[in-house]
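Exercise 7b. C-alpha cells:
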C-alpha cells in the first residue's frame, strides 16, 4: 500500500525525516526529494516556495499519534498521503478514540502494535508490554521503512537524538518545544540508528 503513494511500485530508496530544526542544505533536501518514498513524522515541516532548500518538499507517508501537534503542512494536501497512526499507548492506557478536530476523511490506517511497537522495542531491549516503554514515533517510522523495504537505501534526517542522546526536551522545526516523554529511552534509539549505518545502506544526514 505505501509504495503506491511514492514514485512507483519499485521502492529502492526511502527518506524518513524527523522534526529537528535544520540548517539549509540543498544537498540534503535534494537527497530527500529524490527518494522513491518520503516519510514524515507528526508535526512536520516542508520547504515552501521561496525557502532555502532545507527539509524537502515531498511527503508521501506520515507517521503520527493522537498527541499530534499539527503544523501548517500537516493537513495541506493530506488526501494525497498515507497516514499511519501508531498507538503504543493502547497497550496500557490510551483510549480508542479519534480527535474531533481531525478531518473525517483523513483515512488513517491504525498500525498494529504487534507489527511495530513490540518488535521494535525488542530490538532496543525494551519490554513495552510490562514496562510501558517504547520508541518515539520518529524511530517507529524509520524502523518501519527499514523493515518494510529491506532492499532500499534509507536516508534519515532531522533526528536530534543521533547526536544528543541525553536531551530532555525536543526542539521542533515548527512549533514549540516540549519534553521528551518518560516512556522513551532515546539513548537506545540513538544506538539503534548508528548500528544501521554499519551495513552500508543507511545514511544519516546532519
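Sequence design result:
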Amino acid at each position: 500500500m505505501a509504495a503506491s503513494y511514492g514514485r512507483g511500485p519499485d521502492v529502492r530508496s526511502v527518506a524518513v525525516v524527523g522534526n529537528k530544526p535544520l540548517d539549509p542544505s540543498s544537498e540534503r533536501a535534494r537527497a530527500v526529494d529524490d527518494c522513491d518514498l518520503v516519510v514524515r513524522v507528526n508535526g512536520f515541516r516542508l520547504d515552501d516556495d521561496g525557502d532555502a532548500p532545507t527539509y524537502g518538499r515531498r511527503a508521501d507517508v506520515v507517521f503520527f499519534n493522537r498527541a499530534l501537534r499539527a503544523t501548517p503542512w500537516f493537513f495541506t494536501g493530506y488526501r494525497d498521503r498515507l497516514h499511519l497512526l501508531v498507538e503504543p499507548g493502547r497497550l496500557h492506557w490510551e483510549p480508542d478514540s479519534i480527535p474531533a478536530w481531525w478531518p473525517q476523511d483523513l483515512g488513517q490506517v491504525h498500525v498494529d502494535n504487534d507489527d511495530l511497537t513490540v518488535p521494535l522495542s525488542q530490538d532496543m531491549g525494551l519490554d513495552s508490554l510490562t514496562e510501558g516503554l517504547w520508541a518515539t514515533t520518529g524511530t517507529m517510522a524509520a524502523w518501519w521503512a527499514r523493515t518494510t523495504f529491506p532492499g532500499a537505501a534509507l536516508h534519515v534526517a532531522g533526528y536530534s537524538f543521533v547526536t544528543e542522546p541525553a536531551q530532555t526536551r525536543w526542539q521542533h522545526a515548527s512549533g514549540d518545544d516540549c519534553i521528551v516523554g518518560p516512556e522513551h529511552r532515546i539513548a537506545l534509539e540513538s544506538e539503534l540508528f548508528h548500528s544501521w549505518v554499519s551495513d552500508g545502506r543507511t545514511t544519516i544526514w546532519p
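Instructor comment: The chain has one domain: 2-205. The mean pLDDT is 97.
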